[in-house]
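So, can you check these tokens?
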Amino acid sequence: MINNSTAAISAVLLAASSGALQAEESVDPFLWLEEVHGEKAIDWVKAQNATSSAYLKKVSTFDQLYQDSLAIMNAEDRLAHPTRRGQYYYNFWQDSTHVKGIYRRTTEAEYRKASPKWETVIDFDALAKADNEDWVFKGTTCLEPGFKRCMIALSRGGADAIELREFDMGTKQFVKDGFVLPEAKTGVSWVDGDHLLVGTDFGEGSLTSSGYPRVIKLWKRGTPLKEASVVFEGEPDSFLTHSQTYHDGDNTLNIISEGKTFFTFDHFLFDNETPKPLTLPDSVVIAGIFRGNVFFMLRDDLTFQDQTLPTGSIVYASVASLLTKTPDYQLFVKPAANATVNALEFTANHIVVNWLEDVTNRVTVYQLAKDGQSVKNKWVSRDIPLEKNGNIQVFNASQANDDFFVEYSSFLTPPSFYQVTAADGKITSLKTSPVRFDASDMEVNQHFVTSKDGTRVPYFLISKKGIKLDGSNPTILYGYGGFQASMEPFHSSLIGKNWLERGGVFVLSNIRGGGEYGPEWHQAALKHNRHKAYEDFEAIAEDLIARKVTSSKHLGIQGGSNGGLLVGAAVTRRPDLYNAVVCQVPLLDMKRFNKLLAGASWMAEYGNPDDENDWAYIKTYSPYHNVRAEESYPKIFFTTSTRDDRVHPAHARKMVALMQAQGHDVLYYENLEGGHAGASNNNSRAELYAKTYSYLIDRLF
């Protein structure tokens, strides 16, 4: 049977028979695939899914990979991550019974037990059934202190667009005639129990060119949303406008921020009157408010009063000072050559700094120096003696308590939760995850490679101990390299069980464009320096081959979103280096990325393809414009989601259609739900993992 989409492909193939088909700047034969839910496009998707599923499910390992993945994700004894809110610990939980999940809670004392009893707050399977909707839980925004009322975010199929409903945590019921916001890319913050600051789609002209809220309104309980009063309007070409509530002791401050670009914001203090501008450099990242001071990270050097504070420093100034034209900026901490501030948290009396030092974490607690202490500045510090060479995440820190939680894990060590008393650094063990794969014969090594321009770039290699350096080891090289997102060591039972136990090697790259060494590491690969990230990635691939860890025949690469662009560029730049490519929810058409969904907001990262000078550079690496019919490529596996309303699925769709029209053999799978994460429940996640690892095993072993 030939359907319309098949006929269209056949027509393109015939047109290409006399010459090499290539994506042109002025003519795109696959624009019809940009119709996300178009009948023709969906028919094409379903046909591709059927082909790829049939192929991958024939791989002998598929069923075992699926069962192992599902068992890991549904394990009843896995760690329940606790979110501390008042007297309760809350947790979102999915398993074989609760496919969509339950939001539940328990007490502190109960949580410490080996098998705590949980109280269900919201059953999303039951809610989805009652509403006849494919609801995916997307989080809560709660009124503090007390946490008695929360706005519950619900997404259809996992998309970024959400519906918000007010929920009473005491009665465990949605509030009758409470605050409800229809589906949109919405942000809210509580001003008090009867008022919300809302940014949403209010109608024509209320969104930015990126599709995010431009207007912030103050909405009073008991009134229609259309009567909410406008308190702030951003520019149409800005990235977004949003509000945030900060709690500083007993004080609550509302800050409205307008993102001129993805990395530059103007900030305003809202105190129920006209928003007042805060005198902050537009590139800073606000970390929080402590003792009346706003703490923020510098993305650029800051010069004032004849001194220059370096990029990556944490600086603070009082709120009162920031309302003047000449704030009194104070240095809190500054980065080192190999260390950057990864996160900042606040307790009642302390500031917790999570450092990233050569891509592993350490935690330091700071407090104001007491009178009489001899210190170089106002702050004294204490390192928390946690295990080194791993990943440490700080959570449940708030100014309502003077302690915090940490999660420690490493590539081969499963996660453990600890509670830390800020004043004395006392560490109490809370929970430890069971081991899901046998790591006794495995090891982790960190290596550094010199990139094309001489920059020293780190990567982690995880493998069996004593692997033969004969070029035969099946190896996955994973990367991202963008938006100042750091690829830190992480524990994955799925990688361990599905790949490492089978003798595979996993490599995590820390290329430029990420945040592993702070803002400058990110900025080194911005816009017209994008090739630096790709050169770093290629240098690691070549190093793995030169050291005979693997060879091109056994080397695969993987990345998602911006990482999908990375591997798409990698395989079109150097197809000879790889034998497998997993390209997930990717950007690939860099001529039209700014016209698709949220793409306009990423021009701060990549440049503007409508600008002649920017496009002259971007087109040198845009995968959609650099794939060639005459070139030989490995069998690439593209994945995306119909419900991804952040990165348009047409990037992957059009790349596949073009490559097939050129005569290349590729695989494509599009989950019809799942959003930018690719999948929204454990069943669909397990299937996607099984397909991915079946593909990699088939190509590399």
Notes: The first strand starts at residue 83 and ends at 85. The mean pLDDT is 94. Residues 39-57 form the longest helix (19 residues).
